[in-house]
Known about the structure:
Blueprint: E1 3-8, H1 13-24, E2 31-37, E3 43-49, H2 52-59, E4 68-74, E5 89-90, E6 96-104, H3 107-116, H4 126-141, H5 145-154, E7 158-166, E8 172-178, E9 183-186, E10 192-195, E11 207-210, E12 215-220, E13 225-229, E14 234-235, E15 240-241, H6 257-263, H7 265-273, E16 277-278, E17 283-284, H8 287-290, H9 293-296, E18 301-306, H10 308-325, E19 329-333, H11 334-337, E20 348-354, H12 360-371, E21 375-380, H13 386-390, E22 393-396, H14 409-429, H15 434-456, H16 459-468, E23 473-478, H17 482-497, E24 500-505, E25 522-527, H18 533-544, E26 549-555, E27 567-571, H19 580-597
Parallel strand pairs: 18-19, 18-20, 20-21, 21-22, 23-24, 23-25, 25-26, 26-27
Antiparallel strand pairs: 1-4, 1-10, 2-3, 2-4, 5-6, 6-7, 7-8, 8-12, 9-10, 9-11, 11-15, 12-13, 13-14, 16-17
The structure holds 2-deoxy-2-amino glucitol-6-phosphate (AGP).
Amino acid sequence: MCGIVGYLGPKPAYPILIDGLKRLEYRGYDSAGVATLETDGELRIEKKQGKVANLESHIGANLPQGTVGIGHTRWATHGPPSDVNAHPHAGGKGRIAVIHNGIIENYEALRGLLTHRGHDLVSETDTEVLAHFIEEVQTSTGLDLPDAVRTALKEVIGAYALVVLDQTQPDRLIAARKSSPLVIGVGQDNEFFVGSDATPIVAHTKNVVYLEDEEVATMTRSGELTIRTISDAAVTPAIQAIELEIASLEKAGYDHFMLKEIFEQPKSIRDSIRGRVRLQSGEVHMSGIDDHWDVWSKAQRILILGCGTSWHAGLVAEYLFEGLARIPVEVEYASEFRYRNPIVRNSDVVIAISQSGETADTLAAIRLAKEHGAHVFGVCNVVGSSIARETHAGAYTHAGPEIGVASTKAFTAQVAVLTVMAMHLGKRLGTLDDATFMRLMTGLDNIPGLVQKVLNNAAPVEHIAEKFARAENALYLGRGFQFPVALEGALKLKEISYIHAEGYPAAEMKHGPIALIDEAMPVVFIATQDEVYEKVVSNIQEVKARGGQILAVVTEGDTKVRSLVDHVVEIPKVHNALAPLLTVVPMQLLSYHIALMRGCNVDQPRNLAKSVTVE
Ligand code: AGP
């Protein structure tokens, strides 16, 4: 949700902070700021509404000189985007500076206490309350900074990833987390780096420590890293080596991360099945399932939890698991599941799907499921993410870092992994016959090449985008496996072009949405040749009879739909269960081109952030 960076070491902090903020800007871009301890001891805070570039312009040539500092890119929760609400926030005496990602739920009560004690808060944020509260605890108790932070956090209700800089202590940096992610990079030469995730750190060191909930880390200029819980228990830092490559965080010649990630899909899908699908031996390997076969073999229900695009991947998985493994599946929005007092049995297997592995609603939902005794399996893209670390087992999607806020390659990687899981379950449970298993195995192995073929033939999509770019609304329709793809296509369009788009089961259109059809309403049908093709053709005729502009994604060689609609994009013929991996690609490109034609920021759409780590 917000991006957090910190540095303590021998080098000038500002360039490291700014570079880190640019790499984290996809997490939030309403405002940006830095705080450094200058060589003369001044606590210098510079912050500005807007993107990091605005902050740099604001700072100009008068660059901060300190060798310890913190930086923040904000996705506004409390208080609109503004200079005064931007982080870092200082305590009342202007001696400490705090940056924070999360929500302090009892900030109003704390604010009242602080105001009563004479504190004058100038912003609308919960973070400024936190800064004043830490300072108040320090002043009233005389505690050393780490102890004051721990004491203060005991009174805090909510989620936080925070870093505290104290003007009186230029040789220390304090970091703490609860529910919001925080990573510490352990560099050479007594250097420490702090990040919301590893992306601002990996250019400097591959050695990281993932802070756990309610842990407070103290970093010193002499190279000491001490971690204690807020209840003051000692924790041994677990240093891990990460495999992230800095090149994977660059645009590599593409105009936007989103376009790069769309075109990376042949590789990311191949990487997501590599080592799991062994065509020669006709075997599938899913250690995350095999190591817990006692649970999976008795599963009476699969509960799939996720948000946004990940929830759409879960809907595809519902068709996969019920079709191939004949296990009842329920797909739930994690945000609904966690609050509705759900019935979860210990015979349930829960699959949590999350690209970032940090989505607060999904993390809370799996914690609830675990409390009810369910086995939880994670499908995540970020190694070492909170959800990946809190599930009983899992499978990484290996799609590589996804920087574009609109999820693309993560979706197809999720669907590919879920397909392999369903095939594996069906094979082991005996619900999937060998012939179909091998057909799916071969088909899946061919998918990366077929995605490449769709990408190579995607030029018409840009021309079609020109026809739709001025639309104010759009309808996406599909049946069966293509219904979740219709939802995903609609989400892509609305989140980056700001056109209101709805995905619907094609059959459902006549129960209401058909009233929306007129010449101004683009309708996108996914009409691949499968068991329900003729039904979709009927739906197309219903829309055509009412003058709707129709784009159809069809199977190569289709002539029937082609004769009925205004625009066609073809995809190669594949098994119905594998088709979502292909039909989603034109949807992704259509939304990309339309958004560009509307002058939208494709990689950082308004109001959005890449990882929603608050509720
Ligand atoms: C998808 O394009 C959106 N960025 C958003 O819906 C996203 O899928 C959702 O927030 C879930 O994120 P996660 O997969 O990281 O949990």
